[in-house]
Write a structure and sequence with these properties.
Layout (H helix, E strand, L loop, with lengths): L18 E6 L2 E14 L10 H10 L6 E12 L4 E4 L13 H8 L9 E3 L5 H4 L15 E5 H7 L2 H6 L5 H11 L6 E4 L4 E3 L2 E5 L8 E7 L2 E7 L5 H4 L13 H18 L2 E4 L7 E7 L2 E6 L7
């Protein structure tokens, strides 16, 4: 008699919707898995560490030594007064392995048209491309878009764009295209400004000229949104002085990374980070000259 499979293969290469909710006191934070992009690990990935040391760190963390999946996680914060998106991913503008946050948001019952504020940490394409859909319309049609003033000054400078190497001009073009639908709805902010009640900008320059982190505070709860101050925890949390190729001013970025990780560890603050493994939230512990990332325990209840 022919054998049958008790549980046939799923027939899909995708996971179920990537959604994780947690509370910061009275605020509700929802993390959305945006997808991944593979990245080859070569001698250019960490610019100030020998490749064998980088590979050993990856092996210690049970990760492949030749390639990683760069992960993206966007956030929506419901403060009770505001519905705030922090960074946007790609929406329908990226490669096939990304763009999932848009669908995951809808699966979570959040209508992008109800988001009243979009806060941008910096203008790298994986953080802003999702502002505008492929058809040219605003992905968040009723939102004010808040951007770091230093970031706007850099990427919107025609002279700087024209002087940039040809390969670097794509970043300037992405910034201009992404913000075009919003016009007068764009507001520039400085470090230390409360952007909406409970969400405050924190200077973290270096990864880009105006790169910004955020504190989210409600009652006794605090969350430090690291943005891109640290990338893959197995490398850049454990070795905060290592510099990934993505950091534009590597000295400033290292200083910002150490300052924020020190603050999180000393104050026992929960953190969220754009490129940490989903759901991209947990805690930072001091470990020798570096740190350890301790992921939150997955909870089925808020």
């Amino acid at each position: 008699m022919a054998q049958t499979q008790a549980a046939p293969p799923s027939g899909t290469s995708k996971q179920a919707p990537g959604i994780y909710r947690y509370k910061v006191s009275d605020f509700e934070v929802t993390a959305f898995h945006e997808g991944t992009v593979p990245r080859v690990i070569d001698d250019k990935f960490v610019v100030n560490a020998p490749l064998p040391e980088v590979q050993a760190a990856l092996e210690k963390a049970f990760l492949p030594k030749d390639k990683i999946n760069n992960t993206f996680t966007t956030l929506v914060v419901n403060t009770g007064r505001n519905l705030v998106a922090i960074d946007t991913g790609f929406a329908d503008n990226g490669p096939p392995t990304v763009g999932q946050a848009w669908a995951n948001m809808k699966a979570a019952g959040i209508d992008p048209a109800r988001i009243d504020t979009v806060i941008i940490s910096h203008f790298h394409g994986d953080h802003i491309s999702g502002l505008r859909l492929k058809d040219g319309s605003a992905a968040y049609p009723n939102a004010q878009v808040m951007v770091p003033a230093a970031e706007w000054a850099f990427w919107m400078d025609d002279g700087r764009m024209n002087a940039a190497p040809e390969a670097a001009r794509a970043g300037f073009a992405t910034a201009r295209r992404s913000f075009e639908p919003y016009g007068a709805k764009i507001a520039r902010y400085e470090p230390g400004k409360e952007l909406v009640p409970g969400i405050t900008s924190v200077e973290a320059y270096g990864h880009s000229p105006g790169h910004t982190a955020f504190t989210i505070a409600s009652g006794n709860g605090r969350l430090l949104v690291l943005s891109d101050a640290s990338n893959l925890p197995a490398l850049f949390v454990r070795q905060p002085d290592w510099s990934p190729v993505f950091d534009m001013d590597k000295d400033m970025a290292r200083a910002a990374r150490r300052r924020l990780l020190d603050m999180a560890a000393a104050e026992r603050m929960q953190v969220a980070a754009y490129h940490f493994p989903f759901p991209a939230t947990g805690f930072i512990a001091k470990q020798g000259n570096g740190f350890e990332f301790e992921p939150v325990l997955w909870s089925a209840i808020l």
